[in-house]
C-alpha cells in the first residue's frame, strides 16, 4: 500500500467513525468531539490500565492541558519538535488596536497582529509537568518514585488520520530513580503492556522506535535513539497493516530530565527517568477497528476484560 492508498484508508476510517457518531467533526483536521460510546470505551480502558499498574503504588497527579511556559522552554522540546509545539497567545493591544482587530475581523483579514505570548503553552506530553514538580521536593527517597499522570495533550500535526489527533489524551506511569530501577520498570511494562493488550484480542507487535526529531541534527538523534533502544512502541493496525499505529510507548530518557531539572537520587546522583504511555484515543480506535463500532457486540472475552 503506497502513501496515497494509506491516506485514502485513513480518510475512509475517519468517515466511518463520523458516520457511526463516534467522532464529531469540528471543521479542523485532527480535532474531534467524542460520543458517549467512545468515552465509555476510553473510561473502561483507563480502568484496565489502573488494574495493571495499581499495585506499583504510584502517586496520582492530574494537570490541566496547559504547561508553565518556563518549564516548556527548559524542557528542550523546542530543540527537537518546534513543528509540534502549541503556544497560547492573548490580545495585548490598546483600544485603538482593539478597533483595528474588529475591523480586520469584519473584513475577513488577519486579526492576530496584537496577539502576544502568555505564560502558558499547550502540554505536549502528559509527563512534562511531573519532572519540575518532583525536582522541587528535593532528593528522591531510596526507592525512587512512580507517578501516575493523565492529561489532554496537543501536537500541531493536522491530519486526516483519526489516530493522529491534534488534541488527545495520554495516560502515563513515570519511573524516576536510579538507572537500575528505571530500566527494570521499563522491562516490566514491556511485558505487561503486551499481555494487557493481548487480552483485548487485537493484533499487535512491539518494535524499536524513534521520535520525529526536527532538522538535520534530528536525524542523528533519531538514529541514536533507535540504536540504543531507548524507545519501544506497541503497534496495532488501525488504518493500515503496512503502517500500524503506535498505541503504547515505552521510553527510557536516561538522565535527560534529571539533568534539566536537577532531580537527584537519595545518594545524590542524577536521576534517570522512564515512562510507559497509553494513547487513550488510539486504543479506542483500535478496538473499534477490530471489534466493530458497537461494543455490545464485541467478543465476550473482551467485554469481560473491560466491563467485568
Automatic annotation (TrEMBL):
Matching Gene3D superfamilies, A to Z? Bira Bifunctional Protein, Domain 2
Which SUPFAM superfamilies does the UniProt record give?
Class II aaRS and biotin synthetases
Q: Which GO terms describe its molecular function?
A: ligase activity
CDD domains according to UniProt: Gly_His_Pro_Ser_Thr_tRS_core (cd00670)
Report which superkingdom the organism of origin falls in. Bacteria
What keywords are annotated for this sequence in UniProt?
Answer: Ligase
Is Cell division a UniProt keyword of this protein? no
Q: Which NCBIfam families match?
A: PRK07080.1
The protein here is known as: Amino acid--[acyl-carrier-protein] ligase
Organism whose genome encodes this protein: Azospirillum humicireducens
Highest lineage ranks of the organism? Bacteria, Pseudomonadati, Pseudomonadota, Alphaproteobacteria, Rhodospirillales
